[in-house]
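Dear colleagues,

For the upcoming journal club I promised to circulate an example of a predicted protein-ligand complex. I picked one with alpha-D-ribofuranose because it came up in last month's discussion. The inputs are reproduced below in full, followed by the predicted structure.
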Amino acid sequence: MKNIFVFGSLNMDMVIRSPYLPAAGETLTGGGFMTNPGGKGANQAAACGKLNGLVHMAGCVGDDAFGKQMLENLAGYGVDVSCVRIVEETPSGIAVIVIVDDDNRIILDVGANSKVNSSDAERLLASAAPGDILLVQLETPLEAVGAALKLAHEKGMYTILNPAPMARDVQACFPYVDMITPNETEFHLLTGTDLLDEGGRFLMDAGIKEVVVTRGAKGYCYISQGKMVSEDCIKAPVVDTTGAGDTFCGALAVKLAAGEDIENALRFANRAAAVTVQRRGAQVSIPTLDEVETYFSTKRKH
Ligand code: RIB
């Protein structure tokens, strides 16, 4: 089993359900308010931990109650948080999430996530070995993400970039990326097309070896040299899609770290994400390995 190193963001999510998005000046009654640990980096690390991966994370939280809570929560999922830095006199990252009709809209205040730098990447990857996996997203400064990818590439690690949320100039990182996992919107922004084969070829011409497009209700599509594999989304009653993409990326990394072939790893990631969407919240909604196995050995028989 290889180690997984996650370099990214930690946010406290403030979630509310609303019947529609209020207009300017309008006050609206929503419901189901909850505060729970999120952030794309931390969610992906939590997914790795809950699904029994060997996972280490670097990032930054503020010196506030939310920072402490996020660190304790992540450690409870089996994530090594010794490289997550507490930044003084800085608030932790906050995500305000409004859920309308099972879809979420997210507004971020990045807070301490903006302090993540290349020294954090060096500390995180000090013990990494060839074949270990680096998993990054784009909620921390692009310069630091680029430094992490370059260092991991030089160490012979396998690098996965989840380009969310999309950042300008991310293309500069492509020479150090082995796999990219955009959603459909990000895929279009990256490639200028919705056509999977054409866009996939564009990304591979830029040096990326494997492309996985996550397509929400349509499942996923995997593209590499001479190969295209897709699978529909597993039908499940959707309660909240927050963290589903992060679950997919974390689960994929866990199976690749365990030496599974790509098709099995993708199938497992699709299953894990199908469990996440049936629950509210971010890290709290990500299933353990037992929960994924139990769900598919009982419910899916019918
Ligand atoms: O991907 C979901 C995450 O995006 C949320 O947990 C929120 O913190 C935002 O970063």
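Two points we might discuss: The pocket of alpha-D-ribofuranose is lined by residues 11, 13, 38-40, 43, 95, 106, 139, 242-243, 245-246, 282 (CB under 6 Å). The radius of gyration is 18 Å.

See you all on Thursday,
B. R.
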